[in-house]
Amino acid sequence: METEFMVTLMGLAGSAIGSLCGVLINTKLSNYRIEQLEKKVDKHNSLIERVYELEKKQRVTDEKITVANHRINDLEKGE
Length: 79
Description:
This protein is mainly alpha-helical and 79 residues long. 97% of the residues lie in helices and 0% in strands. The longest helix is centred in the middle third of the chain and has 77 residues, at 2-78.
């Protein structure tokens, strides 16, 4: 009877240790994947911000071109 009890305890301990190791490894892997996704999101957000700034500059440039074209047209009409 004592041998069976020892085998049961060893099996329980082995199962507990195996489960704990599996959970720890899975947690580390999940954290690593989350960090990698966060890096990708940061790169994407940086790109979006840069595109937004380029669009603002493009609108200003377009307005300047429109004003320049109106001034050229006014000068051509005056001559």
